Amino acid sequence: MSEWKGKHPVFVVGHRGAPRRGRENTLDSFDFAESLGVDAVELDVRQTRDGEAVVFHDEQIQLGSQHLPVRSFTTREIEKLMLPSEFGDYRIPKLDEVFHRYGSALRYIVEIKTSLTTHRLTMARRVAHLAAVFGVVDRCLFASFDTEILKLLKEVEPSLTTSFLFDHPVALPEPGRPTPLFPPVDAIGPAKELVTPYVMDQASRSGLSVHPWTADEEAEIRRLLGLGVASVTTNAPDLALRIRDGAPAEEHGIAVFGKD
């Protein structure tokens, strides 16, 4: 059974790893997050020209004065890139490298990014395949703003745990009523400011766990923990861990969505 379902302590999720310690979405960043003791890391994946899933947030890669789509590169070309950052030069990892490096040592929120040229079915099949090959299906929460790819993920592999991301108010499905416009997901990932007692109640009624992003301030982290969210994604995982682990159980709640 997915570790993202059922009862579990609130997971602290490193947003793109530990981006205040290393370049986001890199193995260095994920290494720092793991060393801090996070429950999971959030990472972004995009599709290359030959259908590989690589870990990168933006739609385009800046090379000097040029901005080129990730989708325009082959996997081999991506592997050869060395890019500058405030933490030093870095390379773009593939999703299979991340799964190979950490395996069952971490949990993952895999955010699937799409563009006009993304071949969604290929992408859905690729990430599902990689999770199965590396034995981390039950440790992954696959998330996206793209409702179409969320539908395809469930068609490709119904056992995948999925989350619908949004940054503006949306109408959640109501129990017993058809909701053709809402994707078939197990969870929601609202922007932190959208998480209210009302949203928590509606999500619970619909059997959806709640995974807000991206909370970095102590007061906001405490507020979300107090509401009983299932996870908190943060750029400051060390702070979130101290708050969660130092607070009485009744203050930070337990995720109770799904089945035991």
Percentage of β-strand residues? 15-25%
**H/E element sequence:** EEHEEEEHHEHEHEEHEHEHHE
* Share of residues in helices: 25-40%
Report the CATH superfamily. Phosphatidylinositol (PI) phosphodiesterase
Q: What is the 3D form?
A: globular
Give the number of domains: 1
Main structural class: alpha/beta
The CATH architecture can be named as: Alpha-Beta Barrel
Q: Helical element count?
A: 9
Reading off the top of the CATH hierarchy, the class is best stated as Alpha Beta
Mean pLDDT: 94
**Sheet of most strands:** 9 strands, mixed
- Total beta strand runs: 13
Cα radius of gyration in angstroms: 18 Å
How far apart the termini lie comes to: 9 Å
Question: Which consecutive residue ranges, at least 5 long each, have pLDDT under 50?
Answer: 248-260
Description:
This protein is of the alpha/beta class and 260 residues long. It has a single domain, classed as Alpha-Beta Barrel (TIM Barrel), CATH 3.20.20.190. It contains 9 helices and 13 strands. The strands form 3 sheets. Strands 2, 3, 4, 7, 8, 9, 10, 11 and 12 form a 9-stranded mixed β-sheet that branches. α4 packs across α5 (147-156) and α7 (218-227) crosses α8 (237-246). The protein starts with 7 loop residues before the first strand and ends in a 5-residue tail after the last strand. Mean pLDDT is 94; it is low at 248-260.
